[in-house]
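EI: anyone free to look at a 284-residue chain?
SC: sure, send it
EI:
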Amino acid sequence: MKTQNLLSSSLTTRWGKYKAGLKTCRREFSEEAVHDFRVATRRMLSFLDMLRTLMQDPKIQKLRRALKNQLDDLDDLRDAQVLLADISEAIRETPALQSFQEYLQHEEKKLLRAARKEIKSLKIVSFSKRIGKLIQKIEELEQADLEGDLLSAIDEAFAVVNQRYALIDPKEPATIHRLRIAFKKFRYMVEVVYPILQDIPADHLKKLHDYQAAMGDIQDMEVALQKLADFDEQSTAPHDLEPVRLYYKKRHALALSRYIEDKGELINFWRTAPDQQFPQEKRT
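SC: here you go
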């Protein structure tokens, strides 16, 4: 497959999923719908980041900024919905979660009103025109060493991942969160070039997903504890939140220990430098 075709096809697919996710969010604001739309947006952002290394076009940065703003606008809603979905599965065994659940449901209602208004007001006709022009420019790119340029872009993204990995401090969960953000960008870039990678294991993308999810579990518990602190500060009624706090601290510690145990898997996901072999090549 020509690299230009790979890129134009990837952008077309990602843009299609973004539009489908937006359409679903306009129809319903379920946790799944918001999650899928945010993932589609992140994949678009990662693709645009990679594209910026291949061509100079100010429209790329403008489009990226607009998409990033949309993503940020849904952060709080996503957090509330993820926690509510989790609580709905745990509340029978942990009844103490009920008051926290009611607080989050109230927060979700406020966030839903604002998010619905924002989503319905989005005009993406201009976005579609920009995407069409970008696809045309991609198809006009010189082949030369385009594949090598793509791999170099991912090398740079993985270098950032490794830099943040080296700074991990289990006592400072924010260091893992920063790694997770960089890893997402790297992972979505790898998805783009996956069809042209040689001898890549069939489960490689799943392992990338699972590694990211392990860090995500830690962040979800960080968010839960922060939201619980907000609830405690804002509540005027007496609540015994200590059992809930202990519940989330225990889950946080478990998620952290699981990630720390397997964090070294990172070295198997990409080459450490452009002049080094890919991990799968070393094993053959």
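EI: Residues 3-267 form a domain with the CHAD domain fold (CATH 1.40.20.10).
SC: 👍
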